[in-house]
Structures are given as structure tokens and as C-alpha cells.
Amino acid sequence: MVGNTATIGRRLRHELEQFALLTAYLYVCFGALLLYKTAILNGAGISYAPYGLAIVKALILAKFIMLGQMAHIGDRYDRRRFIYVIIHKSILFLILLNILSAAEEAIVGLFHGRTLGASLAEVGGSALQFLATSVIMLLILIPYITLKELESVLGEGGVWQLLRQQQTGHRSG
Fold it and tell me: C-alpha distances in angstroms, 3 versus 8, 11, 43?
């Protein structure tokens, strides 16, 4: 029983570490985008300061991504070329995030007394805004999925070890 509790404890700690790292990564990405949006709007004389939005969105999307990983989204295509696996999984996770974000917004909207249609209209804004948000999210997902796939190839901690490794050799070019 003690060994089982220790295993659960290790697994819980690992999941919390992964969640914290993913949240931090998303927070930095979203924070940079919101800073850029704030700078543009302030330059046009429009006051905009959504300081808590980046962390809230990072926490929610990190949980959605981890749920997708637990559901093994895209894992059945692992035997394809590495680049195709990364692109495929990134697109699948983008679809998952769009669906779960829409569901989350609908639930929050219903809780606040809005209709389902009104809540879903707020999710993506215009078609152009939805497309722009999706492209940005895909660009955020690709490096994350790449690191996760590299970790699966190199083993636990392999990417970190590779990043810390001293560069040796001679480059020509």
C-alpha cells in the first residue's frame, strides 16, 4: 500500500510540474501578445489593460492540453515521419482547444444568463479574428508539441540534457 501511495505521489508531482511548465510557457506567449495588443491600442489612443487575462487563459488552455495528452490525441500516427507527427498533433490540439474553449465560453455564458448563441459569438469574434487567433495558437503549439515529441524519442529529461550539453566540434559554413 505504501509503494502504491508513493507511485501516486510521484505521478501527481510530475503532472503538477508539467502543468506548471505548460502554464508558464502559455503565460509568456499570451502575455507577449497582450502586451503587443496593448501597445498598439494605446498608440491609437485606446486604453486597454487586461492584466489578468493571460494567466487565466494560460491556466485553462494548459488544462485542456493536458486532458488531450491524457486522451492520447494524435498518438495513433506516431509511426509517421517526425515532421508529420508534429504538424498532425499540433492541428489536432488546435481543434481540441477551439472546441473546448467554445464549450467553456458557452457554459460561462449560460451561467451568466446569456444565450448559447451570444456566448459562442464571443468566442472567436469575426471570422478573421478566429482565423488569426487559430494561426497564433498553432504557432504556439508547434514548439510545444515538438519538445514533447523530442522528449518521447530522447526519453524523460533527454531534451533538457541536450539543451544543457556543451557544444563541441567544428562548424563549417
Answer: 9, 12, 59
